[in-house]
Specification:
Distance between the termini: 72 Å
Radius of gyration: 20 Å
Structural class: mainly beta
Shape: elongated
Bound molecules: copper (II) ion
CATH class: Mainly Beta
Helix content: 10-25%
Oligomer: single chain
Strand content: over 45%
């Protein structure tokens, strides 16, 4: 009897842990950061990774933030040897059991018309709007400019 009760408690505990550990609707947002800007900059670049632990794909529709006039999602494409950037139309897909990556050299977030210069060490908040998961608040960390970062041309 005692053994059964112990087993039952253990079972309930493990279930509780599973519920606590389960991320809400399977999306996790990591490595949200933006690059520091000079005193006057028309744009700034931001990055983040969305990890989908679920079995259904989702779509990042838009990003709202008071840090800039607007935030665009850009993809980088090789067009005849020239790397060009274009807005991602219709939202960015987060594959099932996969990830959507915005990282230097590839897809990135373009902060058009920053409200103020981005200074390393500061943070700002943004809201990611997903087709299925709804709105998620994310805090971006501003990191220093490094010299070897590719210049941003549009
Ligand atoms: Cu861009």
């Amino acid at each position: 009897m005692r053994t059964i009760r112990t087993l039952l408690v253990l079972l309930l505990l493990s279930m509780a842990c599973a519920v606590l550990a389960a991320p809400r609707d399977g999306l996790r947002i990591e490595q949200a950061w933006a690059r520091a800007t000079p005193a006057v900059a028309p744009v700034a670049a931001g990055y983040l990774v969305v990890i989908n632990d679920g079995d259904t794909p989702d779509r990042l529709l838009r990003i709202d933030s008071t840090i800039a006039q607007r935030v665009e999602m850009h993809q980088t494409r090789d067009e005849g040897g020239v790397m060009r950037m274009r807005p991602i139309e219709g939202g960015a897909v987060v594959p099932a059991r996969g990830r959507l990556v915005f990282a230097p050299g590839g897809n990135h977030l373009m902060l058009i018309g920053p409200a103020h210069p981005l200074v390393a060490g500061e943070t700002f908040e943004a809201t990611l709007v997903f087709a299925h998961a709804g709105s998620r608040k994310v805090r971006f960390e501003v990191r220093g400019m490094d010299g070897d970062a590719p210049m941003h041309m549009h």
